[in-house]
């Protein structure tokens, strides 16, 4: 086994606690759920998974060192991610209740959700820096690197899917209990507000000293 059971359990416990704390990505998938239902919310997790895979790979390859050393690179990534989230949130806020059902049923709606969550996860510089700081604590330098990274990557993504999926299903049930256009409009705006809030949260990120 690439990773000892003790180290794997320690990593899984620490990762689960960190994932359970809502951040920009979690707020975004919850926003999609409130606006378009649990199906779109769950599909958006595909984008989160792909974004995490890219972030972990980039951090291991050393891109995190560039972000940590270059204030300009960090700021560019931060503001791109923040602006993208705010833009999506405003679009959701302004959409009419009549647009919700086609959005849930269309392939484009799912595709957009996946692409949006992927970009937001990837454009969050703190995510890459987080993996760069978090993963080395569990790496055994006497064993091959990439098999360990693969195990940790799969573990993190599975835990993220389970925990965020639980949030989505709970919110999806609450959304399904209210079907009036007025309440759907309110939930649509709430979802948009959550995305804008996630963008503002991203904008407050500071580069580690």
What layout of secondary structure does this protein have?
Layout: H1 5-20, H2 24-36, H3 38-61, H4 63-69, H5 71-94, H6 100-105, H7 107-122, H8 125-134, H9 145-176, H10 181-203
Helix pairs in contact: 1-9, 2-3, 2-7, 2-9, 2-10, 3-7, 3-8, 3-9, 4-5, 4-8, 5-7, 5-10
What does this structure look like?
It is a multi-pass membrane protein. Keywords: Cell membrane, Membrane, Transmembrane, Transmembrane helix. The chain crosses the membrane at residues 6-30, 42-67, 73-93, 114-139, 145-169, 190-208. It is found in: Cell membrane. Pfam families: LysE. With 209 residues, the protein is mainly alpha-helical. It has one domain (23-203). It has 10 helices and no strands. Helix 3 (38-61) packs antiparallel against helix 9 (145-176). The radius of gyration is 18 Å and the shape is globular. The chain starts with a helix and ends in a 6-residue tail after the last helix. The relative contact order is 0.24.
């Amino acid at each position: 086994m690439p990773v000892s059971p003790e180290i794997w359990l320690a990593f899984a416990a620490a990762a689960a606690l960190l994932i359970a704390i809502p951040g920009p990505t979690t707020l975004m998938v919850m926003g999609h759920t409130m606006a378009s239902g649990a199906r779109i919310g769950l599909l958006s997790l595909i984008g989160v998974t792909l974004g995490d895979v890219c972030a972990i790979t980039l951090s291991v390859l050393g891109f995190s060192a560039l972000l940590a050393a270059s204030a300009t690179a960090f700021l560019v990534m931060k503001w791109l991610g923040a602006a993208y989230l705010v833009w999506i949130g405003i679009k959701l806020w302004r959409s009419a209740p009549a647009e919700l059902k086609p959005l849930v049923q269309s392939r484009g709606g799912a595709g957009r959700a996946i692409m949006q969550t992927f970009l937001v996860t990837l454009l969050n510089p703190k995510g890459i820096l987080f993996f760069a700081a978090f993963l080395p604590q569990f790496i055994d330098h006497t064993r091959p690197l990439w098999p360990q990274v693969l195990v940790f990557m799969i573990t993190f993504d599975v835990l993220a899917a389970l925990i965020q999926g639980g949030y989505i299903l709970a919110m999806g049930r609450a959304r399904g209990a209210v079907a009036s256009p007025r309440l759907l409009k309110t939930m649509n705006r709430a979802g948009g507000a959550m995305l804008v809030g996630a963008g503002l949260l991203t904008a407050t990120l500071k580069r580690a000293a």
